[in-house]
């Protein structure tokens, strides 16, 4: 791999496995579950890690190594490990680092399955979680106890597009000697690099904008080498590894991440401005709209506003359902960060099991609609939204 540091776009394209004797231009696909040894001594030295080399694809594989190396360069991280899904990354990271009796302080508005993991599963191993409101960062320190080990958040949040000050989280983590972990899925490393603000680990669901075309699942955790070492050892034995095929797809996708995300953000800002001017819309949340309550923080820590726009349609749950039914081109789907624009109405779908009060705790009002703005021509996206609103 190339050691000279280059610009983001160049690293994404030029970080590549060494060529084989075939002198291929594009990285080949290494679909192999294991690797062979020269002799008994080679095998011994490899298993004791005196030699750094591939042994078995649950541990490492050339395609996953290339993918991880790129994400490390993009996030400014020392080391990383790639997972089959974003949730495998979240679970394995926490499970590797936490012991019985440990405590997590997390934002309440985190990805649904992450919330379920903290609330329903970790208590089985005597790991507890306290949640803070993302819009009340001044309360975070009051949740920290002597057992607290990890501080966790996402920014922007899903689906309400709230922003938290990463600099503030970094200083709280430092003061209380906590491991700060940020799920950077919505921003991507192109828009925001949490390690710069003091995060020790960054998690991605690569399923979203990193793949960017709705094809494969994947996840990755990068950050401090000593923490990654623990996560690697845990994962090498428990088996959440990313498949080499998906790693190959994702590494290719990273080559176009910057151009795709630039265009996603340009389209999303136009969609947000259109919605803000529409009479059937109560409010719009987009990080780079001046009306966003944390606009200044967003500007400070993000390069652009991302591709997700949230807005509240007038008329609550019924209006939200009617709007979805009137959509013609955009997809009704649970994914996000795809080339295809996707709309979802959380109150009647992903969050319909929550009470209204619980929904409001994570800023999900009855009329909230989330749009993952895609790469279709922006006029076509806007005209679909317009006809559905009307
Ligand atoms: C989708 C998502 C995840 C989970 O990723 P999967 O690849 O679906 O397992 C985690 N965090 C955030 C913010 C997500 O959007």
Molecular structure report:
With about 400 residues, the protein is an alpha/beta fold. It has helices at about 10-15, 40-45, 60-75, 85-95, 110-120, 165-175, 190, 225-240, 245-255, 255-275, 295-300, 315-325, 355-360, 380-390; strands at about 80-85, 105, 130, 150-155, 180-185, 200-205, 220-225, 280-285, 310-315, 330, 340-345, 370. The strands form two sheets. The chain has a seven-stranded mixed sheet with strand order 1-7-6-5-4-2-3, sandwiched between helices. The longest helix has 20 residues, at about 255-275. The structure holds pyridoxal-5'-phosphate. Pyridoxal-5'-phosphate (PLP) binds near residues 111, 207 and 219. This is O-succinylhomoserine sulfhydrylase. It is an enzyme of class 2 (transferase).
Q: What is the correct CATH architecture of the largest domain?
A: 3-Layer(aba) Sandwich
Percent in strands: 5-15%
- Here the CATH topology of the largest domain equals Aspartate Aminotransferase, domain 2
Q: N- to C-terminal separation?
A: 54 Å
CATH class of the largest domain: Alpha Beta
Arrangement of strands in the largest sheet: 1-7-6-5-4-2-3
- Report the structural category: alpha/beta
Question: What is the residue-averaged pLDDT?
Answer: 95
Radius of gyration from the CA trace? 21 Å
Q: Low-confidence parts, pLDDT < 50 over ≥5 residues?
A: none
InterPro entries: Cys/Met-Metab_PyrdxlP-dep_enz, O-succ-hSer_sulfhydrylase, PyrdxlP-dep_Trfase, PyrdxlP-dep_Trfase_major, PyrdxlP-dep_Trfase_small
Keywords: Amino-acid biosynthesis, Aminotransferase, Methionine biosynthesis, Pyridoxal phosphate, Transferase
Catalytic activity: O-succinyl-L-homoserine + hydrogen sulfide = L-homocysteine + succinate
Enzyme class: transferase
